[in-house]
Design goal:
alpha+beta, 4 helices, about 45% helix
């Protein structure tokens, strides 16, 4: 299965990397490696995750982040957002509504 990561998700990943890099040198790179590993797993497991707000939600293994994606008509896993689970749930809802429109 193929993957596509939208600009909104790339921005979310960059924001997360910056946050974790401020916490400790090298932690931002580890964050990206971990999240991309989780995203790469969608090549095998896309579509098996629970749906939340109309998106499939994959919870990251090492960081408190959720990867929100949908399957398009060709079977491609399209990653819309990569959001911090510690934020206010209302912010998550608003971010996903903006992504789906």
């Amino acid at each position: 299965m193929s993957l596509r990561i939208l600009t909104s998700a790339v921005k979310d990943l960059a924001d997360g990397r910056e946050f974790y890099e401020r916490q400790g040198e090298g932690l931002g790179a580890y964050f990206l490696d971990s999240l991309f590993s989780d995203i790469d797993s969608l090549a095998l497991y896309a579509g098996i995750h629970r749906k939340v707000f109309g998106f499939h939600r994959l919870l990251a293994k090492r960081f408190p982040y959720a990867i929100y994606y949908q399957l398009d008509a060709q079977g491609t896993a399209v990653v819309y957002r990569v959001l911090d689970c510690r934020q206010n749930p209302r912010k998550t809802t608003v971010a996903l509504k903006r992504s789906s429109s």
